[in-house]
Amino acid sequence: MASNPTFPPSRPLVHGHRGCRGLRPENTLPAFLHALQLGVDVLELDVVLSADGQVVVSHEPWFSAAFCLTPAGERIAPGQEQQHNLYQLSYDVIRRYDCGQLQHPGFPQQQAQPAYKPLLREVLASVEAAAQQLGRPPVAYSVEVKSAPEFDNVFQPEPTVFLPLVLVELQAAQVMARSTLLSFDLRILQLSQLLSPSLPTCLLTETAEPWPRTIQRLGFVPAVLGPDFTLASPAAIAELRALHPTVSVVPWTVNEAEDLQRVLGWGVEGITTDYPDRLLRLLAG
């Protein structure tokens, strides 16, 4: 995470995962605005591309059968999700799908409400304006570029086309200084290091490969490492810090109170959670 003097250094930063997925429909304006009101330090979000080159906030490059409805208001069959490929749809069509009215089966506390997949520029403009209205410090952004080599030219363009479109949106919104670029795709992070070396990058990992080896494959030391918290440990964090003391550790996605308390004990720089309210209560207590 890029440093920001408005954030207290004595506690980990609270990263609202997809806004606050446990409380509001993921990656939607209601989720980001509610997380902002709760008091998160960082908004984590995912971006994909539409057929007409618009940067859309969405975790998958298709519509989920679990919580999305077609423009006709119909459910999507699980086996047909990838037929609703965002990279093959113009944004005016994407906007007509609903991804908030259905109760998410994995998050019973989530408040269902009509919601669409917004453009990145719309999210940034809305959040920046809301922060000013609330009189709170500006929030930071963790922007995950959803990319994988096997998806090239099917669900996304190649990184040389994809990443510049994302960077343009961050620059236009004047939030580069408060943004970190995340990806599991090493190609995205390597290209970002070439195109925008001052933009902090976060290497996401969800395998048992030792972190120093993953960083070695990346070819440079990122600002942040984002591991699956179930694969993290104090020993792994100590080893990383001995080799790369400048790397911040921000585990994901930590939701249960017992797990949050345990990860807080690791002394990490940030925690990504679907329930930022829970983490904020622990930190306040």
Automatic annotation (TrEMBL):
It holds the Pfam family GDPD. Residues 12-283 form the GP-PDE domain. Gene3D superfamilies: Phosphatidylinositol (PI) phosphodiesterase. InterPro entries: GP_PDE_dom, PLC-like_Pdiesterase_TIM-brl. This is Glycerophosphodiester phosphodiesterase family protein.
